[in-house]
């Protein structure tokens, strides 16, 4: 499947979330008097729109901001709560995939059973993991095999990836596939992820982004070619924005996008991934420390990035 088709299919599925935005998250479906309910008591029933493919059937809730309670859902989707009549507020947490739901105050009359539908809003967003490229620097000519364990769907690779890449890596960085030579391996993917909170990182004006990237990539230990490839790809996208939020991820943190299985195992595998988003103004933030490459021995370097929601 072509890269554009994969991304479009993710977006079409995701658009269903926006199609529901006009619907209330919590909606009263019916209110029924029940003489079997004790006087001054009432029953709330909440029906959750849990997808059929969700295996978890437990939920955490709190009433009136009191202690959290973990319960098993009735028929895998309903929760029944008996309490006093009057106004009560509820908070529901299902899994990390969905946002927590807060109901606000819900009024219920004595000896009534009120039934509500609760729509769980998906907290995951589709992102494109853009242009991770992988460089190889063996100490001698080395037959190399690379397997990608992508967390999502591959959208594009170059050279073409068929279960693995097999090539000869040369000390000057050239990668030889038969009679063809490449500078690096290229892959992109599409995956679902949670919305990223702005925490540590950097706030960078668009007009200063080239100088910023040169400084940070030098601190990270990228060589001149790697820096040029990085900056010529990301620089134009970042430079047009008034302000950018930028945060780097390193090494094991990149496994959430894909794991790299490389044989022979390099002495050093360095991965750097840049998250960024456009923001309207400068905000206070704790600057991030850069982690530097160790280039002793057989070294593999990967960089990539994505625009985050």
Strand content is: over 45%
Q: What is the H-and-E element order?
A: HEEEEEEEEEEEEEEEEHHEEEE
Helix fraction, binned, reads 10-25%
Distance between the termini: 25 Å
Mean pLDDT: 90
Structure classification: mainly beta
Q: What strand order characterises the main sheet?
A: 11-15-9-20-19-17-16
Contiguous uncertain segments of 5+ residues: 1-22
Can you summarize the main beta sheet? 7 strands, mixed
Broad shape: elongated
Write down how many β-strands occur, each being a DSSP E stretch of 2 or more residues: 20
Tally of contiguous helical segments: 3
Radius of gyration, in Å, reads: 26 Å
When the domains are counted, the total is: 2
What attributes characterize this protein structure?
single chain, five-stranded antiparallel sheet, mainly beta, seven-stranded mixed sheet, 3 helices, Immunoglobulin-like, elongated, 309 residues
General description of the model:
The structure is a single chain. The protein is mainly β and 309 residues long. The chain folds into 2 domains: 21-118, Immunoglobulin-like (Sandwich), CATH 2.60.40; 124-307, no CATH class. The protein has helices at residues 3-19, 209-220, 224-239, and strands spanning 26-33, 41-48, 58-63, 69-72, 78-84, 86-93, 101-108, 112-118, 124-137, 142-150, 153-158, 165-169, 175-177, 180-182, 185-194, 202-205, 243-250, 258-263, 268-279, 299-307. The longest helix has 17 residues, at 3-19. The protein starts with a helix and ends with a strand. The model is unreliable at 1-22 (pLDDT under 50).
